[in-house]
Amino acid sequence: MSKQFALIGPGRVGSVISRALFENGYQPVAIIGRNLQSAQEACSFIGCDVGLATMDLYAAAPAELILLAVPDDRIAAVAGQIHLNQVAKPGCVLLHFSGVHPAAVMRQPEGRTFLFSLHPLFPFADRRQAYEQLGLIHYFGEGDVTAYPTAEALGNTLGGQLHFLSPQMKHLYHAAACLVSNYLVTLIAEAGSLLEECGIEPSQGETCLLPLLEATLRNVATCGTNEGLTGPIVRGDIGTLTAHLQALESSPTGLLDLYCLLGGRTVLIAEGSGRLSTSKAESILELFNKTNFTNKRA
């Protein structure tokens, strides 16, 4: 018998995961949204009967697995409604997709459900693109041991790799995800502002940077961060770095401190890889420190 599931929160993450489950034998019993239109649109994307779209939380009652794909700040409240109204049947697995909240955020006194959190380490900006990449994604999860078999089966269905975390590590894990995803977007935007200052049209700046970004990611994928690092720091080119700092000091973008902070961390990578000598590393850090920004060596 196929496992029955319900989706609460028909946004991008929930609808993408639900589509993969549906196409691999899981049976949806309800697609529940705060408005009927969003639930119907999710049904169309998932490929299931549009009649499963509803705003009624009780429609999830037959499910063995309830996917709670609501915003982070609503997870505890919606889980509380499920527990208070005894929506979930005993033994049901209640699963959320937050990267920062542990599964225990859904726990209630005398709860009858098993709890798990599963976070896909991937930006769901476009659900069709995300769906096509599901098998390449790494998933990070934690929760009740009794929910592990369901989580492992879910991971196998999605085709990616499932890693188990300690709930105490979720905040640190999510900070890592934000560094590499959210702040990369910020870096691209800030680099684009520097190109704009150079006279490049705002609409062209990010386009110019994309080939550089793609090549850098390929280098990291092929060689790792140590060997994939290029540029003036790993070459020990103090003259180039000095020119950068002088230009940034007079730039209205206010990026001097950010450049120095990232430069200090990059020195540690370059020195740790053996490609930058200790004496050169110290000289470069001293140069950064002259900008009145404190770079501490680990």
TrEMBL record:
All residue ranges annotated as the DUF2520 domain in the record: 141-265
Which InterPro entries does the UniProt entry name for this protein?
6-PGluconate_DH-like_C_sf, DUF2520, NAD(P)-bd_dom_sf, OxRdtase/DH_put_Rossmann_dom, TM1727-like_C_sf
Q: Which Pfam families match?
A: DUF2520, Rossmann-like
Protein name from the UniProt record = DUF2520 domain-containing protein
Q: Which residues form the Putative oxidoreductase/dehydrogenase Rossmann-like domain?
A: 7-106
